[in-house]
Amino acid sequence: MHDVLQGCDGSILLDAGGEKSAGPNANSLHGFDVIDTIKASVEAACPGVVSCADILALAARDGTFLLRGPTWKVPLGRRDSTTANQSLANANLPSSGASLATLVSTFASQGLSPTDMTALSGAHTIGQARCSTFRDRIYNDAANMDTSFAAQQRKACPQSGNDGHLAPMDVQTPREFDTAYYDNLMARRGLLHSDQELFNGGSQDALVRQYSASPALFRADFVKAMVRMGNINPLTGTAGQIRKNCRLVNS
Ligand code: HEM
Q: What contacts 100, CB < 8 A, 6 or more positions away?
């Protein structure tokens, strides 16, 4: 889902030199095999028609819905990039240590508002993060972190080593697309520093409170922001290509 950067053109799926290995994505994205399986069935039925970028956008929508999240209409007809751009992805992806100001400006550079950013971050109500992405937070963020939560996370994420240990980003309901992510932030139990930045005495505190109190508002804003994010620089018409294998540019 961190596929925003070069645009929604499937570039994140490329194996070589791409966004997969950009700092914040390196070793972090799972599920490429699922996309490969879907692509293989689609190609068998109707070769050369459905892009990897469209498959990825539909999989994000359906995965969200299957975990009891909202659903939305995905505009189709995106085409796949013929290049992946690691430096672009590095420049456009905020790190898990990012400040609120950096989060706001990174999303703004893609035409997304602070509200979009705070709503989209709610996707961290599912999925897991590696110890290496939240170590600084659990050892150095005492001021805005629940003490017992920090102690619990430190057990499997030592000061050095075990970098790849995975922890759920929403400890309460990791497989449910709900608003527990925002409840956690209000309890100072955000796993990533960048998560807790949304509720740390700044401009997004009020919205975090509103999402926690109103799942309907969160769902509506999340859908709007997903559609907006899905419209960032898509390739259409004759630009790009329909990749045969999502991991490779056509030869
Ligand atoms: C606000 C800026 C964001 C930052 C700094 C950020 C950072 C991260 C980090 C560090 C991880 C853990 C990666 C790992 O260790 O494997 C992660 C996972 C994840 N992020 Fe984000 N993210 C952001 C925005 C988003 C957005 C906009 C979405 C989607 C709408 C999203 C969806 C996810 C999901 C679903 C996972 C779990 C992946 C898995 O379990 O394999 N994130 N994010």
A: 197, 198, 200, 202, 203, 204
The total of structural domains in the chain comes to 1
Residue 121 Cβ contacting ligand 1 at under 6 Å? yes
Ligand 1, residues 28, 61, 64, 113: which to mutate, most atoms within 8 A of Cβ? 28
How many CB atoms are located within 10 Å of the residue 238 CB? 7
Which tens digits make up the pLDDT trace of 136-186?
Answer: 999 999 999 999 999 999 999 999 999 999 999 999 999 999 999 999 999
The residue type found at 237 is G
CATH code assigned at 166: 1.10.420.10
> From CA 168, how far away is CA 173, in angstroms rounded?
9
Domain carrying residue 216: 121-224
**Catalytic residue positions?**
2
Please state the φ and ψ torsions of residue 65, each to the nearest 5 degrees: -65, -40
Query: What spacing in Å lies between the alpha carbon of 240 and ligand 1's midpoint?
Result: 27
